[in-house]
Specification:
The protein has one domain (2-172). A hairpin with a 5-residue loop joins strand 3 (60-68) and strand 4 (74-83). The protein is flat, with a radius of gyration of 20 Å. Helices cover 27% and strands 20% of the residues. It is of the alpha+beta class. It contains 4 helices and 8 strands. It has helices at residues 2-13, 20-23, 27-42, 104-117; strands at 46-49, 57-58, 60-68, 74-83, 134-135, 140-141, 156-159, 171-172. A 4-stranded mixed beta sheet has the order 1-7-6-2, with no helix packed on it. Strands 3-4 form a two-stranded antiparallel ribbon. A two-stranded antiparallel ribbon has the order 5-8.
């Protein structure tokens, strides 16, 4: 039981930043944000464009999380860029919401069948899995805090892929 308390005290002693202003002062968080920006660029998540007249701009923010291993030691620092989807307007930025997820009952059924048939199962974690779907709607987002294009600070990101936090999650396969 003491180990559990020690783990919790480690987590409480080092709270995650709640804003970019807090995070930008620490190299570990800047590295985590750069890793996320690199993944977004590699997945061609957006194009940087001038905002067309009459279009809505959705904000974005950074969300920070310290990941721990089973012993309570820090395993990595994760920064995720999240769209402020609450600013999206139905009929303009999105038509309907849809997010394909597996129900727990389906997972249990798969595990039960696999166990009875003695099948081998493999687990994999897809980094930035959410970004693999193209979006149909025109969604414009402000540039990520701390990673604004210096040559075009007035430009916005025209999203080509879905981001966490968006209402517009209907994707094309």
């Amino acid at each position: 039981m003491a180990m559990h308390y020690a783990y919790m005290s480690k987590v409480v002693q080092n709270p995650d930043p709640t804003s970019f202003e807090e995070a930008k002062t620490e190299k570990k968080w800047m590295n985590a944000m750069q890793e996320e920006i690199d993944a977004l660029a590699e997945n061609q998540t957006w194009d940087l464009v001038k905002l067309p007249k009459g279009k809505n701009v959705v904000g974005c923010k950074w969300v920070y999380k310290t990941k721990h291993d089973s012993d309570g030691n820090v395993s990595r620092h994760k920064a995720r860029l999240v769209a402020k989807g609450y600013a999206q307007m139905q009929g303009i930025d999105y038509d309907e919401t849809f997010a394909p997820v597996a129900k727990m009952a389906s997972i249990r059924t798969l595990l039960a069948v696999s166990a009875t048939k003695r099948w081998f199962l493999h687990h994999m974690d897809v980094k930035n899995a959410f970004l693999h779907g193209d979006i149909e709607e025109e969604v414009y987002m402000c540039q990520p805090p701390g990673f604004e294009e210096k040559r075009h600070p007035e430009f916005v990101c025209k999203l080509k892929k879905a981001l966490y936090g968006m209402k517009s999650t209907k994707t094309m396969a």
